[in-house]
Amino acid sequence: MNALNSKRSTLALLALAISAFAIGTTEFISVGLLPLLSDDLHISIRTAGLTVTLYALGVTVGAPILTSLTSRVSRKTLLLAIMIVFIIGNGLAASANGVALLLTARIVSAFAHGVFMSIGSTIAADLVPENRRASAIAIMFSGLTVATVTGVPLGTWLGQQLGWRVAFVTIAIIGVIALISNALLVPSTLRAGVVTPVREQIKVITNGRLLLAYAVTALGYGGTFVVFTYLSPLLHDVSGFGDKAIVVILLVYGIAIAIGNIIGGKAANRKPVNALFYMFAAQAVVLLVLYFTAPFKWAGLVTILLMGLLAFMNVPGLQVYVVMLAERFTPKAVDVASAFNIAAFNAGIAIGAYFGGIITEKVGIIHTTWVGALMVAAAVLMTGWMRKLESQDQNNKKEAVSHDNSTKLTSHNNIA
After folding, report:
1. Cα of 332 vs its chain's centroid, Å
2. Contact 155, 167 (CB under 8 A)
3. Residue 152 Cα distances to 34, 89, 372, angstroms
4. What is the mean pLDDT of the chain?
């Protein structure tokens, strides 16, 4: 599909960002509500953490499978259906009187999340010229970052003041606003969904370069969630902040994430792999430093805000790089490749949240910091490998062009 004019594309990206805001709020709201869920439902912090883990697993499973199953549905119709499912999921969460229904509701919401993020990234990329793709994806994902700026702190505050169920009711209302925004602002002339044959889908999950990128996504993005999932209890129990201060810190943390997301989008427009390498290296160092600074209020706060600055900075680069790889190696399965990367993001969240829960329960919440650093350090090594492979590709391309030019010159001389 040709890029839409600037005004129309901006409105469409705004609709996607509003939807991402609703989805981002529900994904991360549990981070602020964990202590409340634990107290009200009489469960441990680790069990409450399953609201993060199972949500992420729901996205991990739902993104590639449901994206494939809905490939024949028009993109706009699918967007509207996604938001309806999302509203139902959060309505169920608000009505839950036990942990079983709450976790079920979280999985329902997660299925909507998985499909939205899969098709949303490719729609955003199609709405703009090729050289603005990373920035367009960053705008769509800005809904997620704004959710961490306002949605998560506000939801946490509402939960503290009126009960955690009110937070989920509010998210359902935001979902209704997102539904209306999609109906009014997203054009009906979107690129049709591509039905991807099974053999093409298999190419995605058997391509070594894509699998490497997915591993980097899971480890690099997920490493932060070892800490972030349990950020509220860390701030309270280790750094010594009160409930009101934690709400403000989550707000400032979200602002840092939003700034980092914008920086990451711009940095990844030209050479995403190089940008990712330095982002991950910085994040690994910050997480390790947090182990030493967390017990001290102000030093810990500065380190946590740096963690926020870097937490989502890698998202645009990771997504645009996977789309680039898919166009190169599996051009008939770009949407599916994008869906698997969304699955990798959430596999990372699930892994991080799960291990964070075990570490918190067994050895103490402070140790989540260096474990997260190890996960991100593994991503640094893998990104270095990706850089090497990209460099080899460029050299091979130059040699091929040089050989082709030499052949043409020889042929021309022979004719002469």
Report:
1. 24
2. yes
3. 12, 18, 22
4. 84
Q: Structure tokens of 307?
A: 């963690």
Q: Residues 112, 89: contact at Cβ < 8 Å?
A: yes
Cα separation, 30 vs 100, whole angstroms? 15
Find the angle CA(80)-CA(84)-CA(88) to the nearest 5 degrees: 170
* Tokens, residue 241: 């902040």
CB count in 10 Å sphere of residue 291: 18
**Mean pLDDT, residues 14-20 taken together:** 87
pTM score: 0.76
Strands (E), 67-138: none
**Alpha-carbon distances, residue 409 vs 397, 398, 401 (angstroms):** 18, 16, 12
Instruction: Using the Cα atoms of residue 336, residue 341, residue 346 and residue 350 in order, give the sign of their dihedral.
Output: positive
- pLDDT-derived band at 191 (thresholds 50, 70, 90) equals low
Locate 416 and state its tokens: 């002469």
Asked if 309 and 260 touch (Cβ cutoff 8 Å), the reply is yes
Write the CA distances from 108 to 17, 50, 347, integer angstroms: 21, 14, 17
Tokens representing 353 are 């949240």
The b/e string for 10-22 (b: 16+ C-beta within 10 A; e otherwise) is ebbbbbbbbbbbb
pLDDT at 210: 94
User: In degrees rounded to 5, what are phi and psi of residue 224?
Assistant: -65, -30
pLDDT tens, 265-286? 888 877 889 999 999 999 999 9
For residues 62-88, average pLDDT: 85
